[in-house]
Protein 1
Amino acid sequence: MDLPAQQTTGPYRVVLVCLGNICRSPMAHVVLEARVAEAGLADLVEVASSGTAGWHVGKPMDPRAAATLDRAGYDPTRHRARQYDAGAGAAYDLVLVMDRDNLADVGGRDARTGLLRDWDPVDPGGEVPDPYYGGDDGFEEVLAMVERSSDALVGALTRELAGETRLR
Ligand code: 4NP
């Protein structure tokens, strides 16, 4: 997908959405926020995450997700799970979900809404598979997908927020 033009005021607002908001979207949240900061965009881009289900609201991320992030040098400790509020969709400029079930649950694809892996330069348009019922390998796979996609997205955000997109 192309980067949607900003509709909100203040920072460009991105929300990452999965089912439980304890594995995939929290990992994507931490990685994207770190990449945004490294790119010098911390004041211009706001990252959030939530889950379509409310089962884990208020809890920290899954210990396997946290351990995977920690091993790779990220800080997983600040996360607390939230539920996605479908009525608050207009509060975001970009809604990126992990799989096709999530996409259906947020109301389907539109100009602001797509898959995180639409941004994956290696294998675009795929899903970030749910690692919850699998082993540690699944979490490492999620991290690799999230890192690749976040790098590409931050490239687009840098171009957009530096005004270069409008010059093309
Ligand atoms: P997530 O993974 O959507 O990546 O956070 C899951 C977390 C919890 C459950 C399923 C998936 N669950 O069934 O509780």
Protein 2
Amino acid sequence: MRIVLLGAPGSGKGTQSQRLVERLGIPQISTGDLLRAAVKAATSLGLKARAVMEAGQLVSDEIVLAMLEERLEQPDAVAGFILDGYPRNVAQCEALEALLARLGQPLEVAIKLDVPSELIVERIAGRAAAQGRKDDTPETVRERLRVYAEQTEPVAGYFAAEGKLRIVDGVGELAEVSRRILDALPTPRAVRASA
Ligand code: AP5
């Protein structure tokens, strides 16, 4: 199963991806996590990405695509993957489609988690207090939400035009949201019974 998980900052992509990893036995590939690891390791890529991320902007398409390509070529991604945080603009949609065509692994479904913005702000404030992520400050969150509205919202339309978009209500208990996602997957899966 090859899945893209879409949604605003704080909509629950990371949380639900981790739950899907357990259910589906395929890896989560989060471009945000890959970038944070590069920042932490102070690689040249991380040094370039750090200020951009802390400003709430998007890291350049070329950097993120190169990182994603390397990750998708790892053996554990052969059986499928959950892409969390990519694509984030229409150029990334096109790059992803070309990359997956080259790998012979076309995307099956794009799930968008729908969460109202007031709840998003509340959730990120909760995480900021608990984890201290550098881009969870009120100013950066405002910018991330602005960038999301401007650049990432059109991604849903891209997948809708391909008939691959499913919109899932992201409000509720974690297990309930997971069940809705599993129910939105295109083919019946035995794993749903145990969700
Ligand atoms: P990234 O790490 O992808 O951040 P994001 O998209 O802003 O998403 P978040 O991690 O904030 O939220 P989430 O949707 O995963 O929600 P979560 O599960 O954590 O990207 C960070 C930065 O990296 C970007 O700004 C950009 O600079 C760069 N970047 C990344 N990808 C890029 C790309 N493709 N191109 C260019 N740049 C890129 O949940 C949030 C909180 O809510 C948690 O505390 C959680 O416990 C809670 N929560 C979750 N679900 C529920 C629920 N159902 N009920 C109550 N609370 C819940």
